[in-house]
Amino acid sequence: MADAAMPGALPVLGHLPWLRWRPLEFVERQRALGAVTSFTLRRHPAYLVNDPDLVWRLLTELSGEVGRGRNGDKTRALTGNGLGSSDGDFHRQQRRLIQPVFHRERVESYVPAVREAAEQQASRWTEGEPVDLVRQMLAVAATGVLASLFGVRSPEAMAHEVAAALPTCLDIASRRAFASTRLPSTSGRRYAAALGRLHAVADALGRRVPGGPAEAPSFFLSRLWEAQDLGLPGLDDQQVHDEIMTMLVAGVETVATTVCWTFYLLGRHPDIAVRVEDEIRQAAGDLTELSHLRRVVRESLRLFPPVWLVRRRAAAPLRLGGQKVGAGASVYFSPYGLHRDPRWYTDPERFDPDRWLPGRQRGLPRGAYVPFGAGVHRCVGEAFGVSEVTTILASIGARWRIVPASARVRPKAVVTLRPDRMPVTVHRRP
Ligand code: HEM
């Protein structure tokens, strides 16, 4: 297949307005143009990898040559040099330090806190009440992370801070990355205020309380502190702060968004919702029994992957699928675009959890389903994220039916792919 340049560049800005205003159309259009397509962002050369095998190579074999890069990265602006933005040897060191926090057995111990967060939120609902699901699921996800990862005993007030500040930070960070003009100073002030609130939460979480922890023990924090006491290179107080910010930024919105999209999809597909309800009832709280719900979540992450666009930067010149990529160029791939490719998914726009029944997707290229990325930067919180989403859906779904108030909710592609708005009404199950 010939590799091609994306048409529609403006003189100075290049394709920047596309990414700002029609980002999903932008990535989907390039699919037909070639395995690796090129475009420009303010004269800066950029590439989109549309071929799953090449995406896989990019993330595995080529990860040394195509790293995260340091400049103008919207993640770095939020989380400093935390695990989500570091690279190379330092990233390897930090990954080794943090990974055990997300091992499967440990993740199981986080489930009760997440379940409690979901049940508490829903216990305030009344029959037929309209609910702003996005906001409420952010609060649930934040409560779950604060209680389980950080050992906060009464996380409600802090979770409220995170849920209120996070969307503003992500929205404005993303607008800044793709804005063609300077953003108005009011948005700069809103960004600074929201980011300040998140930093304040991270500071409070990272404070070592003299005379022993006042809260429940946190495996995550104690690992960081122990390593710090042993003198692990680069692990100063700022780095600990950055790792805490990373968990808040990477681990809350992604989960909340996935829960919202899944409720939305179930609301639009009552036949599938009924099967989920039956399964939840029969499983009586045992998450391992929920194989249909897991397929539902998998399919929801296919259609609406929260991380819809990932960027890398070529450290040195390289060839990618016949395309010459110069040093310093940005190389992107889009889970959203890959997940809706009709070459790998029949009827790709259809919500069909059964496509994930064993054996059905045989032959699917590895890079064609990448909601959690791949290779050295693969989501460290994947098992935790999936367990949180499943737990929240199962605990709320056991007692409540969530009915979307509008027939169609449009995805808004900012840092994450989130519902523009998601008004719903909640109805108690008989
Ligand atoms: C449904 C939920 C989630 C989705 C879809 C998701 C998606 C992703 C993706 C695509 C990446 C790779 C980014 C890249 O290649 O640059 C990533 C990385 C990461 N995620 Fe997640 N994530 C989820 C939940 C979580 C949770 C719950 C946490 C932690 C509490 C978390 C923490 C991280 C971190 C720290 C990284 C950086 C890993 C590294 O570079 O070593 N994520 N996530």
From TrEMBL:
InterPro entries recorded: Cyt_P450, Cyt_P450_CS, Cyt_P450_E_grp-I, Cyt_P450_sf, Cytochrome_P450_monoxygenase
UniProt organism field: Paractinoplanes hotanensis
Protein name: Cytochrome P450
Keywords annotated in UniProt: Heme, Iron, Metal-binding, Monooxygenase, Oxidoreductase
Family: Belongs to the cytochrome P450 family.
Pfam families: p450
Disordered: annotated span: 69-89
Cofactor: heme
